[in-house]
Amino acid sequence: MNTDKKTLIIGAAGKKSPDNALTLDIDPAHHPDIVHDLNITPYPFSDSQFDLIVCHHVLEHLDNIDPVLGELYRICSADGEIHIEVPHHTSWFANTPHHKLRFNYFALDPYFSGNDTWVTTPRRFTVKERKITFHRAFRRYFLHRIFNRFPRIYERFWTYMVPAEHLIFRLSPDK
Questions:
Q1: H/E stretch holding 146
Q2: Separation in Å, CA 161 to CA 43, 135, 136, 156
Q3: Confidence band (pLDDT; 50, 70, 90) for 117?
Q4: Which of 28, 71, 86, 95 is most exposed, with minimal Cβ within 10 Å?
Q5: Can you tell me the distance from the alpha carbon of 62 to that of 56, in angstroms, rounded to the nearest whole number?
Q6: What letters, b where the CB count within 10 A reaches 16 and e where it falls short, cover 81-98?
């Protein structure tokens, strides 16, 4: 295994990954470079090992987000980025038996502000991008632009009338 790789793809799900990426998945049938359960910490990586960490539809399957974000913070380099995509809690595929966690636009806010006392790993992240995605039927009417500009209004008043699909976060650790 090449430990010089600077990209970590978590939840490979059997997809072909770039040559410069290391893949991690819980299921050996997906043929990842490393088989590991993300609920078990610490992860088998060095501090600040990766410049890019991609978590595509993984976090909603975990037991607790707090230790996971602590580990992502630890293994991401100071100049690195963490790309997270999760289903929005109103998405038609968010409520499956395999999904343990639910997310809305503000779900990760305690990790951005660092002010909430319930967060046991006081890691802080800078938000480089955060957006809600919608089905093309709603994008046709430019609702995604309005709702991303006013996410509090969307989450409070419109979320069940105009269900979202995904949430996308691009974060960098404050180290």
A1: helix 143-149
A2: 40, 13, 15, 11
A3: low
A4: 28
A5: 13
A6: bbbbbbbbbbbeebeeee
1 has pLDDT over 50: no
Say which amino acid occupies 74: R
C-alpha radius of gyration, the chain, whole number: 16
Measure the CA–CA gap between 95 and 87, rounded to whole angstroms. 9
Record the pTM: 0.88
Share of the chain above pLDDT 70, in %: 89
Give the residue carrying structure tokens 């980025």: 81
Give the type of residue at 106.
Answer: F
Q: Which domains does the chain have, with CATH numbers?
A: 7-173 (3.40.50.150)
Residues 44, 168: Cα–Cα separation, whole Å: 26
Residue type, position 149, single letter? R
Residues composing the chain: 175
